[in-house]
C-alpha cells in the first residue's frame, strides 16, 4: 500500500476482471447435459465445487490467464462441441494451425513428459475438432518452450467419454465426486474441504462444568 491507495487491491481487481473475460463460462450449472472438457480432464470434484460452491483462486497467476488470452485473439480457436447421446461435450483449443490442434501451458520448469490431464484435454480437443495431430507447448519461467506432439487416440477418448457420463450423472444427482488425490491438490483452493476435518466438538473443562475450583 502506498499513500491512500491499495495497489494490491487494484491489481487483484484488474486480474479478476481479466479472468472473468477469458474463462469459459458455464451458463447453467444445473444443466448436466452441458459439460466442458476441462471439467473432466482434471479433478472432477474440483470442477463440481467450481460449478456449485466456488471459491475464487486468491492469487491469479499469468499462467491462469494465458490460455484464455490466446483464445480471445483473432487466430484463437472457437468453442467446439461433440455429442455423447444427449450430452454436449464442449471444448476449446488455444489455437488450430495447419490442421494441428495446439494448447499452451505455463510451468515453472520444462517437464520431462506431458501431464496426463493435458494429454486428456488435447486428445479431447482433437476429437471435438476432428483433427488427428496435436501439440502441447510448455512455456517455462526461464523463457524456454518445450513442445510435445501427440496423435489422436481413440482409447483415451473413450476414457474421457466415460468420465463425462460419470460427471453428468453426479451433477443430476447432486452428488459431490470422490476425491482424486494428485499433485493438483497442493495448489487447489478446496484442499481444506477435502482433507481437513473440522473439529465440531467444543472443548469444555470438568472444573467449569461442576463449578469445582482449582486448588
Ligand atoms: S484438493 Fe485435490 S481432491 Fe480435493 S478438489 Fe482439489 S484437486 Fe480435487
Would you state the CATH class of the domain at 33-172? Alpha Beta
What do the pLDDT scores average to?
85
Distance between the termini: 52 Å
- Percent strand equals 15-25%
Low-confidence stretches: 203-215
Could you estimate the helical fraction of the residues in percent? 25-40%
* Helix/strand/pairing category: alpha/beta
H/E series: HEHHHEEEEHEEHHH
Shape: globular
- Please compute the radius of gyration using only Cα atoms: 22 Å
Q: Could you give the order of strands across the largest sheet?
A: 4-5-6-7
Number of helices: 8
Biggest sheet overview: 4 strands, mixed
CATH second-level architecture of the domain at 33-172: Alpha-Beta Complex
> Which ligands accompany this protein?
iron/sulfur cluster
Keywords, please?
215 residues; alpha/beta; Lambda Exonuclease, Chain A; three-stranded mixed beta sheet; 8 helices; globular; binds iron/sulfur cluster
Give a brief description.
With 215 residues, the chain is of the alpha/beta class. It has 8 helices and 7 strands. Helix 5 links the parallel strand 5 and strand 6.
Structure in words:
This protein is of the alpha/beta class. 39% of the residues lie in helices and 19% in strands. The protein has helices spanning 7-22, 37-41, 44-52, 62-72, 116-128, 154-173, 191-195, 206-209, and strands at residues 34-36, 79-84, 87-92, 95-97, 100-107, 133-140, 145-151. A four-stranded mixed β-sheet has the order 4-5-6-7. A three-stranded mixed β-sheet has the order 1-3-2. β4 and β5 (100-107) form a beta hairpin. α1 crosses α4. The longest helix has 20 residues, at 154-173. The radius of gyration is 22 Å and the shape is globular. The model is unreliable at 203-215 (pLDDT under 50). It binds iron/sulfur cluster. The site of iron/sulfur cluster has 12 residues, from α3 and α7.
Amino acid at each position: 500500500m502506498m499513500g491512500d491507495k491499495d495497489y494490491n487491491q487494484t491489481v487483484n481487481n484488474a486480474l479478476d476482471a481479466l479472468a472473468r473475460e477469458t474463462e469459459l463460462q458455464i451458463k447453467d450449472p444445473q444443466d448436466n447435459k452441458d459439460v466442458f472438457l476441462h471439467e473432466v480432464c482434471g479433478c472432477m470434484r474440483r470442477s463440481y465445487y467450481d460449478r456449485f460452491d466456488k471459491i475464487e483462486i486468491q492469487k491469479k497467476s499469468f499462467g491462469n490467464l494465458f490460455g484464455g488470452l490466446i483464445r480471445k485473439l483473432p487466430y484463437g480457436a472457437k468453442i467446439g462441441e461433440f455429442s455423447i447421446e444427449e450430452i454436449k461435450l464442449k471444448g476449446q483449443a488455444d489455437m488450430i494451425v495447419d490442421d494441428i490442434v495446439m494448447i499452451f501451458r505455463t510451468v515453472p520448469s520444462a517437464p520431462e513428459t506431458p501431464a496426463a490431464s493435458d494429454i486428456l484435454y488435447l486428445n479431447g480437443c482433437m476429437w471435438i475438432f476432428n483433427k488427428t495431430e496435436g501439440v502441447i507447448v510448455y512455456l517455462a519461467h526461464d523463457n524456454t518452450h518445450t513442445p510435445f506432439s501427440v496423435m489422436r487416440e481413440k482409447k483415451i477418448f473413450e476414457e474421457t467419454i466415460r468420465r463425462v457420463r460419470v460427471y453428468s450423472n453426479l451433477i443430476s444427482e447432486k452428488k459431490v465426486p470422490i476425491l482424486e488425490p494428485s499433485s493438483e491438490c497442493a495448489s487447489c483452493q478446496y484442499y481444506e474441504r477435502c482433507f481437513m476435518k473440522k473439529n465440531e466438538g467444543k472443548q469444555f473443562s470438568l472444573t467449569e462444568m461442576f463449578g469445582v475450583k482449582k486448588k
